[in-house]
């Protein structure tokens, strides 16, 4: 099992990192992905299959890109609860949610691994670009399992570690030659240089599937997308929709 970034670091360090990037996070995502991150997030929502009236928990919700998409899908009687440890990110999230008062959104500032939510609190769970930054991938998957109702589903979107050397080199080149220089221009180089390190030590798709099964999931399928540069981990409990 690869070493997890921040595994021996106080979670507050990670939260401060995202506090520092909160105001420019959405702009940088658009610039660095040429807007494609929006497509990947919509693919994640489509895989989750949220239904009207469902209660969805969006872990590591950041500035609420996904929470807003999910809230549109579960309206009018459903609810989305966004969870993040970054106060600045949640401030941005609440401002964006306030512009759409017809959506039912709630936000909680908390460490994913110490959630103030009861077991079985959610019909579905979403996590985008968060699993890689937790102190323990296995613990994060257990939290998702804990939150889900018996027929619940979850989807985790994150960077993927390509198995083909050519794709792996292309990903490294992109991070080194595009991401860090752009972040440097915005005086955020230190905050974004961690990306390459965190991806290099992240669990592979197969390892994520194995850890999910150990956490109690009956369905654990990893789907590479975006030319294998990103991945969607589909999770379900016994009796859930396949």
TrEMBL record:
Classification via PROSITE patterns: SAM_MT_UBIE, UBIE_1
Enzyme Commission no: 2.1.1.329
Keyword Transcription regulation carried by entry: no
Transmembrane residue ranges: none
Catalytic activity as recorded in UniProt: demethylphylloquinol + S-adenosyl-L-methionine = phylloquinol + S-adenosyl-L-homocysteine + H(+)
Record keywords: Methyltransferase, S-adenosyl-L-methionine, Transferase, Ubiquinone
Pathway connected to this protein: Cofactor biosynthesis; phylloquinone biosynthesis
Gene3D superfamilies: Vaccinia Virus protein VP39 (3.40.50.150)
Any one biological process term the GO annotation gives: methylation
GO MF entry, a single one: 2-phytyl-1,4-naphthoquinone methyltransferase activity
Enzyme class: transferase
Xref: Pfam families: Ubie_methyltran
SUPFAM superfamilies in the cross-refs: S-adenosyl-L-methionine-dependent methyltransferases
Family under the similarity heading: Belongs to the class I-like SAM-binding methyltransferase superfamily. MenG/UbiE family.
Function comment: Methyltransferase required for the conversion of 2-phytyl-1,4-beta-naphthoquinol to phylloquinol.
Protein name, per record: 2-phytyl-1,4-naphtoquinone methyltransferase
Species whose genome carries this gene: Candidatus Synechococcus spongiarum SP3
Organism ancestry: Bacteria, Bacillati, Cyanobacteriota, Cyanophyceae, Synechococcales
Name of encoding gene: menG
């Amino acid at each position: 099992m690869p070493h997890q970034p921040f595994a021996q670091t106080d979670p507050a360090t990670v939260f401060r990192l995202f506090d520092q990037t909160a105001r420019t996070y959405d702009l940088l995502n658009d610039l660095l992905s040429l807007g494609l991150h929006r497509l990947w997030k919509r693919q994640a929502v489509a895989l989750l299959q949220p239904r009207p009236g469902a209660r969805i928990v969006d872990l590591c919700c950041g500035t609420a890109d996904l929470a807003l998409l999910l809230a549109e899908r579960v309206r009018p009687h459903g609810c989305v609860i966004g969870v993040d440890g970054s106060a600045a990110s949640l401030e941005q999230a609440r401002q964006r949610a306030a512009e759409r008062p017809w959506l039912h959104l709630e936000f909680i500032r908390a460490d994913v691994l110490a959630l103030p939510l009861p077991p079985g609190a959610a019909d579905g769970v979403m996590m985008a670009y968060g699993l890689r930054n937790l102190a323990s991938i296995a613990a994060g998957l257990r939290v998702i399992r804990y939150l889900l109702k018996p027929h619940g589903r979850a989807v985790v979107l994150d960077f993927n570690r390509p198995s083909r050397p050519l794709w792996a080199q292309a990903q490294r080149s992109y991070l080194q030659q595009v991401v860090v220089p752009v972040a440097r221009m915005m005086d955020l180089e230190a905050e974004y240089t961690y990306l390459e390190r965190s991806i290099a030590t992240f669990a592979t798709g197969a390892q994520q599937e194995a850890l999910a099964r150990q956490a109690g999931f009956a369905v654990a399928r990893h789907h590479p997308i975006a030319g294998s540069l990103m991945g969607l981990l589909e999770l379900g409990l016994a009796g859930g929709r396949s």
